[in-house]
Amino acid sequence: MSLTQESLASIPTSYATVSIGTPQTPLPEKLTAIAGGAWQGIELGFPDLLSFASQRSGREVGPQEFDILCDTGKEVRGLCDKHHLKIVMLQPFSNFEGWKPQSEERKDAFRRAKGWIRIMESAGCDMLQVKHLTASESLFWMLNSARQVGSSDSPTITTSRDAIVSDLKELADLLAPHKMRLAYENWCWSTHAPDWKDVWDIVKTIDRPNVGLCLDTFQTAGGEWADPTTESGLIEDKGPREEMENTFYQSLKDLSAAIPAEKIYILQISDAYKKKLKSSPDESGLRPRGQWSSCLRPMPFDGGYLPVVEVTKAVLRTGFRGWLSMEIFDGGPAGTDQRWKDMHGYAKQAMQSHKRLLSECTAS
Questions:
Q1: d(CA 187, CA 192)
Q2: 34, 118, 139, 239: which has the fewest C-beta neighbours closer than 10 Å?
Q3: C-alpha angle 282/288/292, rounded to 5°?
Q4: Gap between the Cα atoms of 266 and 124, Å rounded
Q5: What is the rounded average pLDDT of the residues 119-129?
Q6: Is the pLDDT assigned to residue 272 strictly greater than 70?
Q7: Beta bridge partners of 99
Q8: Which helix (H) or strand (E) holds 237?
Q9: What is the per-residue pLDDT across 299-354, written as a single tens digit (0 to 9) for each?
Q10: Contact at 8 Å (CB) between 229 and 185?
Q11: What is the DSSP string of 150-170?
């Protein structure tokens, strides 16, 4: 499918609230900055919702205090209406699928799901992002990033594909009466389903009309093309570079051919800095790609090196013309700069990056 400027002109734009400021930055200030950058929608990060609820209440609000969180969701909806922003998606809902039947963890997962649906109703949001991770992987991410939410590790988790599919079918059926959708995403350091083919297979097996994919340029290129533990920054254990790249670009062709456009709900955009990391997990057990993801993901054309344009083109060649959303975790090339002196300027710069990305997608 050829890509023209005209065919991409109507693509809506979104910006993740967890991708600007810090977890302590008041959500209204984040929304003002995002709106000032001419973005049309937001991914509402649950950590930002929790933080805003705590600021409103004058105390720390827990993740299952759903009455307070629903009231806060209504206020966020009002703020977004004021700024002409649509709440595209609530994210990230993790550690849901795979718990053993009748376990307390599984009961808690469904309690959380019903609570999040209430929040989505209050906020006027119709899409839930579900992250695919095992319990231990979610724990490591939770411990290493205030931006993400997950439950604790447990021996009662399973990686059984049948169990995962069954749980996600139940979640989809909980969402359906509310006309809500489930956007399923892989993380490239997962041991069970690290790439788009894995989660696409799960989505196909779920076979529900309200279940689709949340694709991500970082998760795709960072898992199939790049490796933060090598000197080159590229995957080196799959033969010569030419062979690796041929495999990667064939994967992108497969993506374009295999996934119907209507089964892609959102494409998240970010790049990655080239920074060599140790090949072993950190002190908490988080794998190198997980460490890389947490604070070394700038916007495109701002110091990164991933083939973001090529991944974006592959998704657009499916016919997808839905939300393109900036989800960036930019701590600078060293991963330590979190000063955020100019959120307004950063949001405007990100919009220019978005426009350049679409322009380069049509350049050849």
A1: 10
A2: 239
A3: 110
A4: 17
A5: 98
A6: yes
A7: 157
A8: none
A9: 999 999 999 999 999 999 999 999 999 999 998 888 887 667 799 999 999 999 99
A10: no
A11: -----TTB---HHHHHHHHHH
